[in-house]
Amino acid sequence: MLLFNLDGVISTEASISVLDRGFLYGDSVYEVIRTYGGVPFALPDHLARLRASAAYLYMAVPWDDAHIIREVERTLAAAPKGEYYIRIVVTRGADQRIGLCPEPTTQPRLLIVLMAIDPEPHFNSAGVRLTIAQRQRTSIEALDPAAKTGNYLNNILALLEAQQHGFDDALLLNGAGQITEATTSNVWIVRAGVVETPPPSVGILHGITRATLLEILQQLEVPHREVILTPADLASASEAFLSSSVRLLMPIRQVDETLLPCPGPVSQRLWDALLEVMENH
Length: 281
Fold this sequence. Notes:
This protein has helices at about 20-25, 45-55, 65-80, 140-145, 155-165, 210-220, 265-280; strands spanning about 1-5, 10, 30-35, 40, 85-90, 110-115, 130, 170-175, 180, 185-190, 195, 225, 240-245, 250-255, 260. The protein is built from 7 helices and 15 strands. By secondary structure, the chain is α+β, with helices and mostly antiparallel strands. The longest helix is centred in the last third of the chain and has 15 residues, at about 265-280. Strands 7, 8, 9, 10, 11, 12, 13, 14 and 15 form a 9-stranded mixed beta sheet that branches. Strands 2-1-6-5-3-4 form a 6-stranded antiparallel beta sheet.
């Protein structure tokens, strides 16, 4: 089921103007959160990133966190009991006429979308198959991937490219040939007992689940580091996985011709630890 909260109005349907800048240009920011035990996981962290993304777009968010949290809670209360994917969107709003430059009177809109998901997180031991996309990741200098905006064409085209070649998802390289991330997930590998993930400097989204996993690795005293990775490093990986707010942790079983043990022991251990953190949040 789907439920919408548009500017405080909760309904099973919602609509915006065809002149809305989010619709016309992807001039919007958003966050995706999942519930666990009916409670949104790491919502304050997501709202902090939402505001950082909006600031990057020179966009003011006129609602404080308390207001947005109340609206999320109101929307969840109006939905049947269960677990939900939550999408929070702030669009710059609708101008009076079409033009690239926002008009001074344009007012942002707040949209919250609920979509029912499986009640129990599922560890997909079969894993996913990835290809290294020919399409490069958008550079930090052009449109920083750390800003989670509605402009998602780079990721969409990379995903379509991967699917046309029979893969589930794509790994994107930056202009220097360094691994950044998958189309909706951060990427990790394990080499010689060390968990490695690309640093923000290569051009990635600062994933909330990524940050949680880094904390877990620290607490478990598992060797780990942020390090620049290239496709050649995959050949020496003993396992690999993706992380995101909805997938949580997804093992990788293949990248192009490279086959990886799936699932690996580190992936399984981190999955269990991540669920424990979510249960206690």
